[in-house]
Amino acid sequence: MPTDSLRITEIFYSLQGETSRVGLPTVFVRLTGCPLRCGYCDSEYAFHGGQLQRMERILDEVRSHGTPYVCVTGGEPLAQKGCLLLLKRLCDEGYSVSLETSGALPLDSVDPRVSKIMDIKTPGSGEVMRNHWPNLETLTPLDEIKFVICHEADYEWARQVVQEQQLHLRCGVLFSPVNGGVSATELADWVLRDRLPVRFQLQLHKVLWGNIPGR
To answer: What is the pLDDT of residues 159-186, one digit of tens each?
Structure first.
């Protein structure tokens, strides 16, 4: 696949549902494909298929929505080599760009203007061995780390990682309850009990629209 083309599952306009950008009108560019198979994945429809699109067509679609915020997501967007060029082109055009990534692939080549939203996979995800720990050294205060918590054992594991690695001194840290797992109330209570230096978050888009793709 040429680097000026990408396989795209969807491009859509919605409210950002997560991170410190929650609530901001955002264009989402969802790339096709992912090498991981997390047990709680809510975007399995992006694993296969998609449509091959040239870079200029993608940029034209982003421009048509008239918002300064763009989120490149997946799947795992970095699984396509052309993702790095797309991120650079979006930054060059003046967009405020975030990248949602599993953290399983190296981040050192991502444009430094991009806000990297990096998952750290918990044991409950089924993909904890895929964490590429050297990525922590690439993070800056512009970036954020996300833990999706499935159960209390996940929480204790994540809490230990935050404390041992002093992650909150690198960038923002987010704790989210997985749908159908630990309750939001339980997770919130644990964060407060342990006085963790993290941001508790729910997925706003699911509160508003449920699990509808493209929302």
So the answer is: 999 999 999 999 999 999 998 889 999 9
Contacts of 18 (CB under 8 A, 6+ apart): 117, 146, 174, 176, 201, 203, 204
Question: Is the bond preceding residue 94 a cis peptide, omega within 30 degrees?
Answer: no
**Angle of helix 184-193 versus helix 152-165 axis, rounded to 10:** 40
Residue 80 burial class via C-beta count within 10 angstroms: exposed 0-12, middle 13-18, buried 19 and up = buried
Closest CA to 118 of 95, 94, 142: 142
Which domains are delineated in the chain? 5-209 (3.20.20.70)
User: Whole-model pTM?
Assistant: 0.93
Residues paired with 176 in a beta bridge: 148
Question: What average pLDDT score do residues 199-206 get?
Answer: 86
Bridge partners (DSSP) listed for residue 148: 176
What is the residue whose two structure tokens read 């954020």?
A: 144
Task: Tell me the C-alpha distance between 122 and 105, whole Å.
Answer: 16
What are the angstrom distances between the C-alpha of 54 and each of 10, 58, 60? 14, 7, 10
Task: Decide if 159 contacts 129 (C-beta within 8 A).
Answer: no
